[in-house]
Amino acid sequence: MEKKRILIVDDEKAVLKSFRGILELKGYSVDTAETGREAIEKSKASFYNLALIDIRLPDMEGTELLLRMRETTPKMVKIIVTGYPSLQNAIEAVNKGADGYVVKPVSVDELLNKVKEHLQKQEGAQKYSEEKVKEYIETRAEEHRTKSPKN
After folding, report:
1. Which has fewest Cβ within 10 Å: 23, 56, 93, 132?
2. Using an 8 Å Cβ cutoff, are 59 and 31 in contact?
3. In this structure, which CATH number among 3.40.50.2300, 3.40.50.720, 3.40.1350.10, 3.20.20.30 belongs to the domain 5-120?
4. How many other CB atoms are there within 10 angstroms of residue 55's CB atom?
5. What's the start-to-end Cα distance of the chain, in Å?
6. pLDDT per residue as tens digits for the range 18-54
């Protein structure tokens, strides 16, 4: 089974190191970015299953980064991480495409459960999409086989 790839975007080196260590111990492949711009470049160059995005970055808001990161297939899961929880932040994050929202300080168990939950949803969505494509192809092939030749 291929390792799930995670990008952590935070300007606090201690958070990057801590999250990276926790996730790597669980077998994930982890990359980090300290700015929104760096995260955008990395998301263009590599595939990530999931991104943990701090809501406040030195060069842009995390909610802006949600919109600017490259979409992938399967869709990259994006979780906002904030030390500044508010209803307004949560609503804005969801409206701009966040799949989840966690509040710092986040416990190890909460972080791992949130990541695992969203990666399982992603895997389920991908399997569903693959089944639909297979079903479509089989249906089209059957239609093609059963059509009578035109004279």
Report:
1. 132
2. no
3. 3.40.50.2300
4. 24
5. 51
6. 999 999 999 999 999 999 999 999 999 999 999 999 9
- The answer to whether 111 and 134 are in contact (CB under 8 A) is no
Q: Is the pTM of this model over 0.85?
A: no
3-class DSSP state for residue 50? strand
Q: Exposed, middle or buried, 54 (CB in 10 Å: 0-12/13-18/19+)?
A: buried
Neighbouring CB atoms inside 10 A of 91's CB total: 11
Contact status, residue 53 vs residue 79, Cβ threshold 8 Å: yes
Secondary element (H or E) of residue 64: helix 62-68
CA distance 79 to 82: 10
